[in-house]
Amino acid sequence: MTGARLVLGMAGIAILGGIVGALAVFALLDSGSDDVSRERGTVVTIAGEADQLFVTPDLDMWCNDFHRFCIPRFEDPHDAHAFYLGDTHDYFRQEGCFVDWRPDFDLSNFGELTDEQREGGAFRGGCSGSTFLPDGTRVFGPSPRNLDEFPVQVVTRTEGGREATFLEVDTTHLICGEWSADYPPGEQPAAVCELAPPFD
Q1: Rounded distance, CA 22 to CA 116, Å?
Q2: What is the number of structural domains in the chain?
Q3: Which end of the chain is more exposed for a tag (fewer CB within 10 A), N or C?
Q4: % of the chain with per-residue pLDDT over 90
C-alpha cells in the first residue's frame, strides 16, 4: 500500500481516554503532522478503533482538507463513507468548485426533511449553492447527483502488539453519487465523476 498514514485513534499515539483522547488525536491531525500525506492520488490510512472516533458533537464530521473528503460519524467502520468535496455539477466540477461542511447550516426551509436532518448540518456548494445532507444526499441546487465518494476499506491488523482497525481511503478514484430523483433516466444532464483539476 502506498501513501502515508493519518493517525486517528489507537495506533502510534497514547489515548488519554474518552473525549480528551479523541480531541488530542484531532489536534495532532490539524497540526500539520508529518504523518499526513502531501501527495495526491495516494491511499490515506486512518488508524483507530471505531469507538474511539467522533465521540463529541463537534466531531460528528471529520474532514481532510488536503485530500478533500469528509467522513461522517459512524457506529460501525463498515458503514463509513468518505465523501469527496468536489461539486457534482459538471460545469462547477470542471471549474474546480468544491462543497464545504457547514455544521450549523439552516435546513428549516428545505422540503420534506425530518427534524434530525434539519439539525444535522449540510454540505454546501460554494459556487453552485447546491446543498447535501451529511449522508451525501442532494436536497437542493443544480448539482444533479448525490456526493461522490472515495472507496473505503476496513482493515484489521496488529500495530505495536495490539489489534487495531484501519479505514483505508483510496483517493485515486471515485464512486459516483446516485442521481437525484429530480433527474429521472432519459433526462439526466452530462455529469463528470472524476477528480476536480489540481489546485495550487
Answers
A1: 24
A2: 2
A3: C
A4: 14
Question: Does residue 101 share a domain with residue 19?
Answer: no
CA distances (Å), 194 to each of 11, 56, 149, in order? 32, 33, 10
Residue 161 phi/psi, 5-degree rounding, is 85, 5
**Do 138 and 130 meet the contact criterion of CB atoms below 8 Å apart?**
yes
Domain extent, residue 45, equals 1-84+149-176+185-195
Q: Where are the beta strands (DSSP E) in the chain?
A: 5-7, 43-47, 61-64, 69-72, 82-84, 99-102, 122-125, 131-132, 138-140, 149-150, 152-159, 162-170
What is the rounded CA–CA span in Å between residue 127 and residue 9? 35
Does residue 200 belong to any structural domain of this protein?
no
Same domain for 74 and 131, yes or no, is no
State the pTM of this model: 0.71
Q: Tell me what pLDDT residue 192 has.
A: 66
Asked if residue 2 belongs to a domain, the reply is yes
